[in-house]
Design a protein that fits this description.
Length: 70
């Protein structure tokens, strides 16, 4: 199976980065040539602040699984 990266976009539609699976199998955020586990910044197009965190993504997945099971 080929994993298709999830595109992370600002509410204005500007692409901020892509969620990619790295060698360890964990999802990270790719920003240009850099892969990070968390990012805080502002959209270059509209200035809106954004936050992306590996731990928050994992928590959201756990909550979703619990809600689906219950």
């Amino acid at each position: 199976m080929i994993d298709i990266p999830v595109v992370v976009v600002c509410s204005c539609g500007n692409e901020l980065g892509r969620e990619v699976k790295v060698d360890d199998g964990i999802i990270r955020l790719q920003l240009g040539g850099v892969v990070v586990q968390s990012a805080h910044g502002a959209c270059a197009q509209c200035g809106r602040e954004f936050h992306w965190s590996l731990s928050e993504k994992a928590l959201a997945k756990l909550i979703q699984r619990v809600m689906e099971a219950g």
